[in-house]
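Quick one:
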Amino acid sequence: MGNGQFQLDIFGEALLLYTTAARHDQLDMTRWQAVEQAVAGIEAKWATPDAGVWELHNEQWTHSRLMCVAGLRAISRYAPATQAAVWGSLADRILAETAATCTHFSGTWQRSAADARIDAALLIPTVRGAVPGHHSRSLATAEAVRKELLDDGYVYRFRHKPGPLGDVEDAFLLCGFFLALTEYQQGNVKDAFRLFERNRAACASPGLFTEEFDIEQRQLRGNFPQAFVHAAMLETAHWLARPPGA
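Output:
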C-alpha cells in the first residue's frame, strides 16, 4: 500500500510469509502480534474495494479475497485452538461470499462480481491453498486461462478487448510461472516443465527478467529487472525439483 492505494491481498501474502516462519520455528511473540494485526486487517477490510494485485481501479477483486482465505487457512495451522477456529470461520465466510458473487456461469472464478472476465491472477490463490487444486472451480479456472490467455507458451494477465492478446500489452512472465505451478499442482508435470522452460528462457543475457515479453518480436518489455518474476521463477524451480505429490 502506497500513495493512498489499498491492496487487500497483501494481508494474505503476509500471513503466508509468517506461516513459513512458523514452519521453521522462527515465529516469536513479537511476530505473532504482527500475525494478529494482519488477521484483524482482513476481518476489518475484506469487503472493502481495493486496487488488486495489478494495482488497477478499486474493485472487490476475487484474487484479493481469496489470498486472504489462503493466508488465514495457512496460519491457522499454527494458532492455538480457539484462534484457529475463529480464523478458520473467517476464511470460510470470505470464501462463501466470494464463491456466491464471483463464480462465472461456466464454473470458473471471475475477476470480481462486476467483471466476468478470466484473469491469470486467479490461479495464485489455489496454488497458495485457498481452495484445493482439484476443486471443480480450480480446474475450470486453469482451463479457461489455457484457452483464453495462453499463447505460444506465454500467458497474458487478462483480455483487455476483443482481438489478439498482444494488441494491448505483452505476455506477463509472472503469469507463465504461475500457470506452470498450477499444472504441477494438478498433476500435469510435463506441461509444467514445458511452461517453466519456455518462460525461463525469456530473459536478458545476464539472466534477468523483465515484467513482460513480446512473443512476436521476442523482446523483453516493461520493468527491468522485475523482482516478482524472479521470485516466481525460483519458486517454480523449487516445486519442479520435488517428486510429484511430495
